[in-house]
Amino acid sequence: MAKNSLSKQEPLLIMNKLKKFFPLKRNSFFDKNQIYVRAVEDVNLRIIKGETFGLVGESGCGKSTLGRVILQLYPPTSGSAVYYGSRVEDMDLNYIVKEIEKLPKYQEHAIKCYQKSVKYDEELVSLKKEIDAIEKSKEMPDKNYEKKQKRVEKLAYLSREQKKEASRQLREGSRTVGSLILEENIEQIRDLLLKATVLFGHNSVIFSGLEGKYSDKYSEEVKSLFEKVRGFKGQKTLAITERTLDPKYQAKLEKNRETGINLTRLDDEEMRNLRRKLQIIFQDPYSSLDSRMTVGQIIGEAVVEHGMYKKGSKELETYILETMSKCGLDGYMLHRFPHQFSGGQRQRIGIARALALKPEFVVCDEAVSALDVSIQSQIINLLMELKEQEDLTYLFISHDLSVIKHISDRIGVMYLGNMVELGPSAEIYADPLHPYTKALLSAIPTTDEIKGTRIILEGDIPSNIFPPSGCKFRTRCPLATDKCAKVVPEYREINPGHFVACHYYEKTKDMK
Ligand SMILES: Nc1ncnc2c1ncn2[C@@H]1O[C@H](COP(=O)(O)OP(=O)(O)OP(=O)(O)O)[C@@H](O)[C@H]1O
Predict the structure, then answer these.
(1) How far is the CA of 140 from the centre of ligand 1 (A)?
(2) What residues does the ABC transporter domain cover (predicted)?
(3) Whole-number pLDDT of residue 114
(4) 365 - beta bridge partners?
(5) What are phi and psi of 330, to 5 degrees?
(6) Cα 446 to the chain's mean position, in Å?
(7) Which segments of 313-459 does DSSP mark as H helices, in order?
(8) Beta partners for residue 16, in sequence order
(9) 270, CA 20 to 30 Å: which among 58, 96, 134, 225?
(10) Within the chain, how many helices (H) and strands (E) appear?
């Protein structure tokens, strides 16, 4: 794998509309409606190389699920998680071939959406004519007239949505395939792949497709080319136009090229290869270690699996001892079993196990929650030291804002599966925009007299199977109005890098 060359401030991971729904068992065979626990819903998140991103929220809000879905420990229901620590060119060619194979699906879907939007437009045009006729006739507009006007609005909306979806599909296709193009060792196919695939990023494909103007000038050439790429069978229609040969257009596509790896697309084998770089430290230091293995075996197991050192070698032992020492574990502990250690020491073993793999990104899932307060700070200090030494990036999950406060560069607040606020730590503390964040903050014990009173949230956390309509927080929110029950608040950037999903965020500061 090529060495990662990301500098600070560049994203290491970008999550787009990540969703995880867990299906619940049906009550009976005849029960047709499958119901789901909506654990994580449409989360957009960038994790910046070198940062500690703190993720908070009450128990059950989906923090752990989000951490696991990012790492692909749970397959996501939909959405993407793109990792920039390795380049797509470093992946096995299978990944590339698979991506090419998916292209026609994007195109098909886009064409369907576009056709629907054309239908809506046709109906809209004829309705508008009828409306015009009514207006010109100087007759009193009746109920029908109003109905028609409403329908026109609805049609315009539907048509717009379908067009948007068509473009989204094409963009998605071009991003993934665009990313395949610059592989140097397949240079001979590079140009043609570029020509053949870039088109999926442009509306001209569907327009020309619908009008029957597909050019098959290059299709034979491209087909045989695809066949060369590991047995890919080739596609019947690949649209090529003059536009694709335009260097300016190619440069534009190159700029939009996705250089990262969409983890959600990898198969198990491909993910296994990347797993070393993406690690997790679990909450419970008691159950997360195999009680039948010695500390040395626990730390060394995955190191051997990933081929970093040979099993039983002197080098492996030296490496394990070095890692243990970094994590504050003495060498004599090498042959001992987990039950012979305290909670804090066990958590150090868990940390050593993850860090021995030289990861780049580590999810710390309630990594200190099970420990005594005095031990908590030792472990947090250790994690922070290791982060500097090893150039790590953390997603630090905790239900406790006071734990996250001092260590996070940025903080995300989750409620019932959604990210409701996200911003730089200092800003979240000084100027929380979401009423939920404000309530969580007010619950942190403090000696500071002026900090204000504790905001007590009414009621229990609602079900995430049938969450409240509109804003999911509204049933407990002191600021809620009728609008909150009807309209889902948009997740918006209010200050640079500070996002919130609340209709009334401006009133949060006056909340008592
Ligand atoms: N494997 C699973 N199958 C079904 N439902 C699940 C599964 N894992 C989590 N859930 C549900 O998804 C929701 C979110 O759980 P999650 O563990 O992610 O929350 P959390 O914020 O990390 O809370 P906690 O700190 O208590 O673990 C919960 O309602 C939980 O019951």
Answers:
(1) 59
(2) 24-441
(3) 80
(4) 397
(5) -75, 155
(6) 34
(7) 314-326, 343-355, 373-390, 401-405, 425-430, 435-442
(8) 80
(9) 225
(10) 16, 12
The Cα 283–Cα 360 span in angstroms is 20
Angle at 96 between CA 357 and CA 303, to 5 degrees: 10
Q: What is the mean pLDDT of residues 424-447?
A: 87
Q: Which residues pair with 22 in a beta bridge?
A: 37
Atom of ligand 1 nearest to the CA of 22: 4
Taking the C-alpha atoms of residue 172 and residue 179, their distance in angstroms, rounded to an integer, is 11
The pick from 37, 59, 399, 436 for probing ligand 1's pocket by mutation, whose C-beta has the most ligand atoms within 8 angstroms, reads 37
Ligand 1 pocket (Cβ < 6 Å) reads 22, 37, 39, 57, 59-65, 399, 464
CA dihedral 266, 272, 274, 277 (to 10 degrees): 140
Domain boundaries, the chain: 91-259
**Identity (one letter) of the amino acid at 486?**
K
Q: Distance between CA atoms of 253 and 247, rounded to whole angstroms?
A: 10
Distance 364 CA to ligand 1 centre (A): 16
**CB-CB neighbours of 383 under 10 Å:** 23
Strand partners, 418: 415
Whether the CB-CB separation of 262 and 176 falls below 8 Å is answered with yes
Kindly report, residue by residue over 447-484, the tens digit of the pLDDT: 554 456 677 777 788 888 999 999 999 999 999 999 99
ipTM surpasses 0.85: yes
Amino acid at site 468: P
Report the separation in Å between the CA atom of 65 and the middle of ligand 1, taken as the mean of its atom positions: 6
Dist. CA 14–CA 3, nearest whole Å: 19
Mean pLDDT of the 262-272 span: 83
DSSP 55-105: EE-STTSSHHHHHHHHTTSS--SEEEEEE-SS-GGGS-HHHHHHHHHHHHH
Listing DSSP states for 400-421 in one string gives -HHHHHTT-SEEEEEETTEEEE
Q: Is residue 429 within 8 Å of residue 441, measured between CB atoms?
A: yes
Integer Cα distance of 111 and 116 in angstroms: 9
CA of 64 to the centre of ligand 1 (A): 7
Q: What is the number of the ligand 1 atom nearest to the C-alpha of 67?
A: 18
Centroid of ligand 1 to alpha carbon of 351 (angstroms)? 23
Average pLDDT, the chain: 79
Cα distance between residue 308 and residue 322, in whole Å: 14
Closest CA to 38 of 415, 473, 475: 415
- Burial string for 95-118 (b: 16+ CB within 10 Å, else e) reads bbbbbbeebeebbebbbebbebbe
Do 239 and 208 form a contact (C-beta atoms < 8 A)? Answer: yes
CA distance 502 to 481: 11
Between β-strands 36-48 and 11-23, what pairing exists: parallel, antiparallel or unpaired?
antiparallel
* Among protein residues, the one whose CA lies closest to atom 29 of ligand 1: 60
